[in-house]
Each structure stands twice: as structure tokens, then as C-alpha cells.
Amino acid sequence: MLSAIVFCLLGFVILISAANCVSSENVIHGAYWLLLCAVAVAGMTWFMGAEYLAVTQLLLYAGAVSVLTIFTVMVTHRSHESACTEVKLSWSALILALAFFALIAYGVIATPELATLTAAHEPIPLAEFGAELFAVDGHAFAFEIASLVLLVALVAAVWWTKDSDLDGERIQKSKRKKAAKEDNHA
Amino acid sequence: MPEVGLVTALLFAAALFSVGLYGAISRKAAVSILMSLEIMLFAITLNLVALARFVPAAQPHAWFFTIFLMVLGAAEIAIGLSLVVALYRRSRTSAVEDLCELKG
Predict the structure, then answer these.
(1) pTM to 2 decimals?
(2) Is residue B93 predicted with pLDDT exceeding 80?
(3) Rounded to whole angstroms, how far apart are CA atoms A100 and B100?
(4) Which end of chain A is more exposed for a tag (fewer CB within 10 A), N or C?
């Protein structure tokens, strides 16, 4: 059951950590705020009755994606100066985000049917959910396609980032060029 | 204890999405933009889970959508971060405004 206190508490943590993630000058601080945000979102998912999705969220986002993000920051922004960027308030982005929120809020509030749906019903049991997810006439095919997409994406990610030998060759080539130039000058 | 309704949950998810949208537009480092995209994905996840809880007809399907959303979100973030690393190798920067050269 999602009581108002739990919702307010988790919602406060989620919004504060998301705002800090978006506005932190240091990228690595942003990554840690994102980790907190992912954990709080998993908590809210848990209290909304989707325990399985909460655990998946925790494993996938708080675990794998956060580690991947922090590793990328470590590889690309090696010095303190390159990790820190100046953060200025962007009025155009703020206006666009507020306009988007206003549009969605108007849509939600202007639909009176939504307000009648206050009583939450019991979530379906996990066994039933799993049986339908992996049923051949259910979502099994879509699930396989999704896992194939993930596999291809991960292989592509490895393929894109692996050309370190090429990189070393390029640096050596430029060094050789420099040395040849210096020889010519001498 | 009063229970939270669907309208509150949807408004909260919209607010979280707006925070992510602001970050995705205003930040300059590519990693920060990807993190903002993740915040937007969190908002969509919360939206779907709230709909599954309050709308009886949406019950199992919203959860299936959430699973596929998580899988595709993970794929997107892996591709995005590897692109950031590849671009950094090539141009020694990850600020998106410096990456304005085609076929460089």
C-alpha cells in the first residue's frame, strides 16, 4: 500500500536527487545523485505493488547502469578540470520544461475519469505475471526480440569502444612525424 | 492513512520528466545528457507502474511495457556511453557543442 507519507518521502528524495543530478557541476557527483535517484525510484515501484519490477530496477539501473556511467566518466574526464563544467541556468530549457509540465498537468487534471480511480486494486501475483510473460501465445516472442536487441546493443558498445590499438598507432605515428620534422630542422 | 491517488502519481511523474527534460536540453557534457535521459526513463517507469496499480484493465500489460522499457533503456544507455567514449577518443572532448564537425 502506498500511503501518503511514504509517497511524499520517496518523492522528495527522487525530485531532490534528480535536480541535483541535473545541476551538479561535477559529472561524477551527478552520477552518484543518479544512483540515489534510481534507488528511490525502485523504492517507489516497490510500494506501488510491483516488487519484481522494483528489484529489476535496482539491479539494472542502480547496479549496472550506474557502474557503467561512473566508468565512462572515469575514462573520459580524467582530470578534475575536465569533469567540472560551469552550470548556468538555461532560461529557454526551463521554460520548455515548465511548458511541458503544464501541458501534462492540464491533460491529467482535465480528465475527470482519472480522479475516480483512487482505490488501488490488488496486483496480480508474480507467478501469473511470469506465466503470461513467457507464454508462447503471450509475450514470449517480444521478450526474445528485446533480449536480442540488448545483446546486439552490448556487442555494438564493445565494438565501438575497443579500438585502443588503433589509437596507440595514431599517437605513435604523430610522434614519428614530429621526430622526422625535428631531424629535418637539425 | 490517506492513500495516494492516480492523479498525484501522474503529476509527480510529469514533474520528474520535466526535470530530466531540462537537464537533457541545458547540459553540455554528453554524459550529463545521458543521465538526464535516464531520469526521463525513470519518470516513464513510475507512470506505467502507477497506471498498472490504479487501472484494472492495464494490470499485466503495463508491467510488460515496463520490462521492455527497462531493457531498451539499458541498451540505449550502453550505446550512448560507448559513443561518448568513442567520440572522446577521436576528439578529446565530450562537450556536445565542440562536436560540430562532420567527417572530421
Answers:
(1) 0.86
(2) no
(3) 28
(4) C
